[in-house]
Fold this protein.
Amino acid sequence: MSNELEVVRRVINEHHTVRDSIKLVGDQLTDLEVFIALRATDSEWVPEKLDNFPEKLKGLQRKMSALQEGLINHSKFEEECLWPILGDLLTEAVLIEHRELGKEVTRVKSMVDDNNFTGLNWREQVQKQWQIRDALRDVLAQAEGHAAREDAILYMVEKALEARAKQPQQVPA
């Protein structure tokens, strides 16, 4: 039983790490939003200024890669260790959300990785930048929502496991 409690606590702690990664991507997104907003309102924008945008995206790409890798590793651990604790239905629900989140992170990461603005006019460039921003916001909200739902379940399981641990052990007759 203490092993189950350790697993639950580890998953909860990993969620804090995942949230830190989400925050790093979100912080990078905020920098990107400022860049886009300034660009969208600057009627004197010249194409040479676009060179700054790929630099901003490189930082975002690194953080998205770290988030994606962290989510993959965390999901693998959960899939291996939570089944005996949560049972079939809850684990299946968690796995469904992991697959959905993984697909969405991959889709958004490919948008961020494809930062080719060649041949786009000023409006198309700004539109593409806003699309990236909106997709990032959505995937970060999805990841945060998933972690919050899992945490609610895990905190209840943790409470039950702690209560069981306090009960006197039955000696077999």
Notes: The longest helix spans residues 122-166.
